[in-house]
Specification:
The complex is a heterodimer of chains A (102) and B (148). Chain A is 41% helix and 35% strand. With 102 residues, chain A is of the alpha/beta class. Helix content of chain B is 32%, strand content 29%. Classes of the chains: A alpha/beta (102), B alpha+beta (148).
Chain lengths: 102, 148
């Protein structure tokens, strides 16, 4: 998986692409946590438009972003969520913690 | 039940093989003509089972993973993922949503996803001896899907 980071005002957008599994997510958690601490945004936006597959490793990535943003009193939103990734996020009930948009 | 077709794979517990494993099963399952959603569910479940072997069964070493997939009568897919790793002492606890011993990089949702995305899940484990995960899914037939 790849992550492009786009800071813009109070919003920090991570554009994920490729397959999010344990192999790819291990580095992503550290990278996302570090960037949120550096930019300290109000909104963390995760754009999944280019994600071709996601397993439960993606849940851990989103939870990492959620916990970091909670420390900042900010929020997380996920946009352009593909159907397969949405089923995985729903299985964990993540829509109770973050905004998930198609 | 006699298998109409099967594959049998053996590979080391390297995380780079997660994509290979789910891709191989997806290619094999394609002959059952699954929908994209069914195929996504199968790939996700296989990814979870194989990741469990890599993260939990062999935490400090590279071990072997055996993956088999069978096509059975009635458009049924059966998948087994086996390791000879550390085993699971409390399977019910391991199946609990959000329970993990894998630290912050794991979500503890692996078995929950396998159970909800497949029709059947059986886990057999011997502490110190390894774990076998059996999963089944019946693929709906094309006419019932109302596709052209």
């Amino acid at each position: 998986m790849n992550i492009d980071t786009h800071p813009r005002g109070a919003e920090l957008t991570f554009r994920f692409s490729g397959e999010i599994d344990h192999h790819g997510a291990r580095n992503a958690i550290g990278e996302i946590g570090g960037k949120i601490e550096f930019f300290r945004p109000h909104i963390c936006c995760i754009d999944m438009k280019e994600v071709t597959f996601m397993d439960s490793s993606g849940i851990a990535v989103v939870l990492c972003a959620f916990n970091k943003m909670r420390e900042l009193d900010g929020r997380v939103q996920i946009i352009n969520t593909p159907d397969q990734a949405r089923r995985v996020l729903d299985a964990a009930g993540l829509d109770r913690l973050v905004t998930i948009a198609v | 039940m006699k298998a109409e077709n099967y594959i049998s794979l053996e590979f080391p517990s390297k995380s780079a093989n997660e994509a290979f494993a789910r891709g191989a099963v997806a290619c094999f399952a394609a002959q059952l003509d699954p929908t994209l959603e069914e195929l996504g569910d199968i790939k996700t479940a296989v990814s979870e089972a194989v990741t469990n072997c890599i993260v939990h069964a062999y935490p400090k070493e590279i071990g072997k993973i055996w993956l088999k997939a069978f096509i059975l009568n009635g458009n049924k897919l059966k998948i087994t993922v086996k390791d000879k790793g550390v085993g699971i002492s409390d399977i019910e606890q391991a199946k609990t949503p959000m329970f993990t011993t894998g630290g912050q990089e794991r979500s503890g949702m692996g078995f929950t996803i396998m159970e909800s995305f497949m029709d059947g899940l059986k886990i057999k484990s011997v502490p110190g001896g390894g774990t076998v995960v059996h999963m089944t899914k019946t693929i709906s037939i094309r006419a019932a899907k109302g596709r052209k």
